[in-house]
Each structure stands twice: as C-alpha cells, then as structure tokens.
Amino acid sequence: MGILANAFTWWNGASWGTMINSRRNGEEVGRDEAGNIYFRHRKDPKRRWVIYAGSNDASRTPPGWNAWLRGTIDDLPEKGLPPRRKFEQAPQPNLTGTMAAYRPGGSLAANRIRPASTGDYEAWKPE
Length: 127
Hints:
Helices cover 22% and strands 12% of the residues.
C-alpha cells in the first residue's frame, strides 16, 4: 500500500495535501523517536502541528513534544525540559484495542478463571 494509501487516507499518516501544505507553510523543527515530524508555521510560530509516522494517534506523541504542541513550553523539548531521570519510564502509546491492553482477571479475553463470588453483593430491590 505505502505511498498510494496516503493519497486517499488521513488515518494512516499525512495525505499528499497535508504534506504539501506543511512543506510550503511550515518549518520542520524536529522529529521524535517514533519518526513523527513536528512543524511550526513560518509566519505565526505559535501555530504548531505534527505529522505522525503511521496511524494518526495522539497518544503516540511523547510528553515533551505534546507540551510543545500545546504551547506549554516555547522551546523545543530538548532545550525546554530537563533530561529524563533514571527512574522515569519511557512513554507508551494508548494500548486499548491491542493485544497488550490491560485485561482484568474476570475478563473473557484474559484467559484466566474468574474468582468465585464472595457473597458481599446485595441486589437492590425497589420498595
């Protein structure tokens, strides 16, 4: 699919129109580890946007770049934020709908046996 898929779909990265507009009116300011490309408008630097590498999912934007996109910080994340500390975990995208999503013990998809009822539930009865 590749390049042709982007010609007709917006959910799989940028369409051709978005790429042309971004290159014409925007200035590329950086890329993150996932390959997302960040832009700011040439005439109005407060206008900022991202072109995702792959599916358009905002949860795939790292926290530092998210802060830059929203205008929380003015400098790029490398300059405007302190370096990541050793105890901080790397950010993860939203895993809902994937096989890595959280499934509680009673879930049918968890492939575990649901614990027996403890009898502490009392049904509501209208009076």
